[in-house]
Design a protein that fits this description.
5-stranded antiparallel beta sheet, single chain, 6 helices, Rossmann fold, globular, alpha+beta, 21% helix, Jelly Rolls
């Protein structure tokens, strides 16, 4: 029997969309989760073009499959069509397939499941809360599996389940949706030259879409041209963690910082326009907190001018240089854990979760 991967059959994780019966996964943490009772079965996935170029491992999509809480598969998709065999145990199994790598470099599509008629398949229940994280490489778990700070980006070493957003959601028993891309900011994406602004890598222009990807799957629309239906995931809380990349451009320049502050306020208005009831937390500090006072100023002005009181800031603890780094001087998992602890504490304190 053929089962389309719709919300009637599976829980959809994060921002996904259907194209020609394929469920497209782009953003970090997107996937499916369902309860299943039946024999072993196969999940067939279609790769984006980046995953079928020989010797392009740095951009192959990385996924994980869980049965219950055990990760049973951790793999990169490197063929146009890949078949993932799932061995099950007697009784009801909780199956989760989650995309570990980010949207910019990697896409996959999951085909409908072909299962015996006697199969039981149903979405897993909703968790206690819903959280959206809006961020950059920190949210994506950039390089977290490579503890050599001199190494650069690879999808093979990116695992968002070991990072701040996922750990926060897990601790709060919350369903999670992430909108994030490494190197992206509000005023400027990452730049190694403070005199040169990077306006190509910005979160606000793409927030209403499925994200910008340089990858594509044959016969499906581009993610950046596919709009997100905000009614499909209505968060109780939103955590915005943007400013680390902006800081590479702003540095100590007050004029640049003021431009960042004004654009931050504009982005808060955009986020609020699509999320009427969510409490918004504005976080910064894990990879440096120079712009944190600017974030606080932006939040204060936004709240005063709009009357919106469902917003506050979180000062994240900065990573400890003496403990080491992962690729490109990104945070160790232990640093993500400390940041998640601070974020969880702030959310519980504010919302009583």
């Amino acid at each position: 029997m053929r089962y389309l991967l719709t919300k009637d059959n599976v829980k959809l994780l994060g921002r996904t969309f259907m194209a020609n019966d394929l469920l497209i996964l782009g953003l970090s943490g997107t996937g499916i989760e369902f309860e299943y009772s039946g024999p072993a079965f196969d999940i067939t996935v279609k790769a984006g073009k980046a995953s079928i170029i020989p010797d392009n491992e740095e951009n192959y999509t990385r996924i994980a499959v869980y049965i219950g809480d055990e990760r049973v598969k951790d793999m990169q998709i490197c063929h146009e069509t890949s078949v993932i065999h799932i061995d099950t145990t007697p009784g009801l199994n909780k199956i989760r397939l989650i995309k570990l790598s980010e949207v910019a470099m990697s896409l996959i599509g999951i085909e409908p499941l072909e299962l015996p008629e006697s199969t039981i398949i149903k979405p897993t229940p909703a968790l206690s809360h819903r959280i959206e994280f809006i961020g950059d490489s920190i949210t994506c778990g950039y390089g977290i599996d490579d503890e050599d700070p001199l190494h650069g980006f690879k999808t093979a070493t990116e695992d968002m389940t070991r990072a701040l957003a996922y750990k926060t959601a897990l601790a709060l028993n919350a369903d999670l949706s992430c909108f994030a891309a490494s190197g992206y900011g509000i005023l400027s994406g990452y730049t190694d030259d403070p005199s040169t602004i990077n306006q190509k890598e910005l979160i606000p222009p793409y927030y209403e879409t499925m994200g910008l990807s340089y990858d594509s799957i044959k016969g499906t629309p581009d993610t950046v041209n596919t709009m997100w239906n905000f009614s499909d995931f209505i968060p109780d809380a939103i955590v915005i963690n943007l400013g680390t990349n902006d800081d590479s451009y702003c540095q100590d320049d007050k004029d640049k910082q003021e431009k960042y502050r004004k654009l931050y306020i504009d982005f808060l208005k955009k986020v609020r326009s699509h999320n009427k009831d969510a409490y918004i937390f504005c976080a910064l500090g894990l990879m440096g907190d120079r712009l944190y006072p600017i974030v606080c100023s932006a939040v204060n002005e936004y709240s005063e001018t709009t009357g919106d009181t469902k917003i506050s800031t979180i000062h994240l603890p900065e990573q400890d240089a003496s403990a080491g780094y992962v690729a490109d001087y990104h945070p160790l998992e232990s640093a993500h854990e400390k940041a998640a602890h601070a974020t969880v504490a702030a959310i519980r304190r504010t919302l009583g979760w």
